[in-house]
Design goal:
By secondary structure, this protein is of the alpha/beta class. It has a single domain, classed as 3-Layer(aba) Sandwich (Rossmann fold), CATH 3.40.50.1000. Helix content is 34%, strand content 15%. It is built from 6 helices and 8 strands, in the order βββαβαβαβαββαα. The protein has a 6-stranded parallel sheet with strand order 5-4-1-6-7-8, with helices on both faces. Strands 2-3 form a two-stranded antiparallel sheet. Helix 2 links the parallel strand 4 and strand 5. The two termini are 24 Å apart.
Length: 164
């Protein structure tokens, strides 16, 4: 059973576009559909960590809004951070699922048997991914991943019960 979801940000939780306004403020967009699935996963007792190579106050804000407390930004080797989380939280590698979109996510993929990538991921990561999703990053890919896991783990009815 999956207990921990590891999420990349740019290209996964958003579409990978980074926009700056005239004052130099960074702007990013996130899918509310992904957000609802993330909040539901947490309500069902699942755990989520964000591991991203960039640093952004917008990422921290979105994580806070969703109730994600495990947020690691500016990470060079995401696999090392993943192993630290697994050890700290006492998870087995069989209890994690990962979503990422580019080569800097490969170190994470190498530690997990359940790996996902958005439809618009880099083709270079496909040998490390077992689920290429129908949705693009920032356009429902995380939601699709969570729904696949809910079905796999027999939790889909529990998910729906949160909203009925």
């Amino acid at each position: 059973m999956t207990k921990l979801l590891i999420l990349d940000v740019d290209g996964t939780l958003n579409d990978g576009t980074i926009t700056y306004d005239a004052q130099g403020n960074e702007l990013k967009s996130f899918s509310v559909k992904d957000g609802l699935a993330i909040a539901s996963w947490l309500k069902l007792g699942g755990d989520i960590a964000i591991i991203t190579g960039r640093e952004s106050p917008i990422t921290a804000k979105r994580a806070s809004e969703l109730g994600i407390s495990l947020v690691f930004q500016g990470v060079q080797n995401k696999g090392d951070v993943l192993l630290q989380i697994v050890q700290q939280k006492n998870y087995s590698l069989d209890e994690i699922a990962i979503i990422g979109d580019d080569v800097n996510d490969i170190h994470m993929f190498m530690h997990s048997r359940l790996n996902f990538a958005p439809r618009d991921c880099s083709p270079l990561i496909l040998p490390y991914v077992n689920h290429r999703l129908k949705h693009k990053g920032g356009r429902g890919a995380v939601r699709e991943m969570i729904e696949i896991i809910l079905h796999k783990d027999g939790l889909y009815d529990d998910f729906m019960a949160l909203w009925l």
